[in-house]
Specification:
Blueprint lengths: L2 H9 L8 E11 L5 E8 L5 H12 L10 E5 L10 H11 L4 H14 L6 E12 L14 E14 L5 E4 L4 E4 L6 E2 L5 E5 L1 E3 L2 E3 L2 E6 L7 H7 L8 H16 L5 H17 L8 E2 L1 H10 L4 H4 L2 H9 L4 E2 H4 L4 E5 L2 E5 L7 E6 L2 E6 L5 E4 L2 E4 L2
Antiparallel strand pairs: 1-2, 1-4, 3-12, 4-5, 5-8, 5-9, 6-7, 9-12, 10-11, 13-14, 15-16, 17-18, 19-20
Helix pairs in contact: 3-4, 6-10
Length: 376
């Protein structure tokens, strides 16, 4: 799924859409010892409006349009469709429309037994349908061409006992330590997934979208053990691998200007493709072009394909994950943060035999620790 497809499903994830129905909700509670303590299936038709609204708010957060970072597509390997495997469990749950107790319980037990999770958590899964409207050659809505996209949206939500603190006891007229034993389910899921995916405005049962609240720290156990997919690098790991490639290939030529220029070049690539629905990526060939354009010698670039493959295999890197929004210069005891607009005002040089960091100041009036200082 790309950003446009995700945005379409998210936009229509509401009863007000007219094309969307959330039909049933499956809920389960798992304690800190990994025991499935409770589960139930409820119809959304008879559900109180206030309760329905909370489920809708929680589940909608899984449909994150930050595709490629917080919301990532995974392909099921062939063995995932074997009897009892993750894709098989999901497909059966989808076909059951959350009407079969045994299928639902198998699904919840599969998550409970395979997830690595600290503390108690709740599982909320909804069976939904979305009418995909199509248009004919006259740009009119073609009701005969409508397709129904039926899907499961699952949220995994942490559970806690609320905030610690003090309360005023009006009966005894005193301030007491707050004692809260109620287990509160967060409306902000830590993880979730959408199955099947909505691709080319149609259903694709061989792929799944995984959501993580923390793009830099995804729950790998959900991807690999719960969903049965091969984990791909997080945004943090992609950036680390990219930096490792630069260090290995460029070597001693790596300096402030080169690092700044590479960042600017990747920003240009992202900007040029900002209207594209597919994720903009940087592979070894594109990186070769960028480094060649900024003057990295050909003899160094001959090592790029091998270095890239050893770090990333054949997988391209998402360009947005590689961009630095500011330049940070770090030396023992000194840290300098430089915004992109001021990057050209900084340079390195050797003065009187000493390595120096030089900063051009258009305005001689600066502040040090909040106090004005005039350098003129």
């Amino acid at each position: 799924m790309n950003k446009k497809e995700t945005a379409e499903i998210k936009k229509n994830f509401s009863d007000k859409s007219g094309f969307f129905i959330m039909e049933k909700i499956l809920t389960g509670f798992v304690d800190a010892e990994k025991n499935l303590r409770f589960h139930s299936i409820n119809s959304c038709v008879t559900m109180p409006e206030e309760e329905h609204a909370v489920y809708e708010e929680t589940l909608k957060r899984v449909l994150n349009t930050n595709v490629g970072k917080a919301f990532t597509e995974y392909e099921f390997p062939n063995e995932a469709y074997e009897e009892g495997a993750p894709q098989d469990l999901l497909y059966k749950l989808l076909k059951s429309e959350l009407k079969d107790e045994e299928t639902a319980e198998n699904f919840l037990n599969h998550i409970t037994n395979n997830i690595a999770y600290t503390g108690p958590f709740a599982i909320i899964a909804a069976y939904c349908s979305y009418t995909i409207r199509t248009k004919n050659k006259l740009d009119e809505l073609d009701e005969d061409g409508d397709e129904i996209y039926r899907y499961l949206l699952t949220a995994i939500c942490p559970v806690n006992t609320g905030s610690d603190g003090f309360v005023f006891d009006s009966f005894n007229n005193e301030i007491l330590k707050k004692v809260n034993t109620e287990l509160i389910i967060s409306k902000a899921p830590s993880d979730g997934f959408l199955y099947p995916v909505f691709s080319n405005r149609s259903t694709d049962v061989n792929h799944i979208m995984y959501y993580t609240k923390s793009a830099n720290k995804p729950n790998i156990s959900i991807v690999e053990s719960v969903l049965g997919c091969n984990f791909v690098m997080s945004a943090e790991n992609e950036k680390a691998n990219f930096q490792s490639i630069l260090k290995s290939v460029v070597g001693d030529d790596l300096d402030y200007t080169l690092i700044k220029t590479v960042n600017e070049k990747i920003q240009e690539v992202v900007e040029e493709n900002k209207d594209e629905t597919d994720i903009t990526v940087i592979d070894d060939k594109k990186l070769h072009t960028i480094l060649s354009e900024i003057g990295v010698p050909d003899e160094k670039l001959t090592a790029l394909p091998t270095v890239y493959e050893s770090s990333c295999g054949t997988a391209p890197l998402k360009a947005a994950n590689l961009i630095e929004n500011k330049t940070v210069l770090v030396s023992p005891g000194i840290t300098v943060n430089i915004k992109p607009s001021a990057a050209d005002k900084v340079r390195t040089s050797i003065l009187d035999g000493r390595r120096c960091l030089l900063i051009d100041l258009d305005d001689p009036n600066i502040e040090i620790n909040g106090l004005p200082v005039n350098l003129s």
